[in-house]
Amino acid sequence: MNLPSKVRIVEVGPRDGLQNEKQTIAAATKIQLIENLVAAGLNYVEAGSFVNPKWVPQMADSSAVFSGIRRTPGVTYAALIPNLQGFERAIGANANEVAIFAAASEDFSQKNVNCSISESIARFVPLITAAQAQRVPVRGYISCVVGCPYSGAVDTHQVVTIAHELLAMGCYEISLGDTIGVGTPGQIKQLIELLTRQIPIEKLAVHMHDTYGQALVNIYAALEMGVSVVDSSVAGLGGCPYALGATGNVATEDLVYLLNGLGITHGVDLEKLIYAGNTISAALHKQNNSKVARAKSQ
Length: 298
Hints:
This protein is α/β, with parallel strands linked by helices. The chain has 13 helices and 10 strands.
């Protein structure tokens, strides 16, 4: 096995985890979540997004959230952005990294951002130019790398093409998103094998949703391929509106437990992480979706 000795965890709970919540979540609650996550040892937190609040109302207060965080040196407080306007708002709120997103499915791209894949990528040109001028790192997401809720199976060569384009534009890393959680370990290994024929493994991360209960085994498959960056969401927060029964991203607590069992370094205190997950779950009046958190809270 080619397991990495160290994994960098990208915590997406405050953004990807909360954005689908229908209830109003106070900025103070989001700020407390972020600070609890950092206190647990996470040094990369996707703290919000600067998209049109008409489409994602839960993220409308991202400027207030970024402004209210007590910053810890060495921690990346990132923002998801769709265009140059979003970039300018993120920088105005002192985000120290931004993430952009494209889809590997034409149908999903049209539904999600109302344009084709090529058009969505073209929108990133001025954004990345501005980011490079200000020395702001840009991370790239590719959604629906395995399956699309509208058109089914996705052409893996399309994923490779988009990854190449995003890296060539200036993204330092590409996060491969199984947005609706339909992937299986064999598919993930095949995709990564195809990508690494042309792209260094160090440039790839995985972002696995757990709709079909495959997130952890898919992550393990990616680790076996040499991937050392994994996205996760505390308490398994989130969900996909396009997949019945979607339970959001893999729970960070469950990921940390897996990494502990494999002897892989990650820098996160599991007990403090469980506290962060239980605290936000209580604020949302929900059960913590992490199986590890539930077991340890018995």
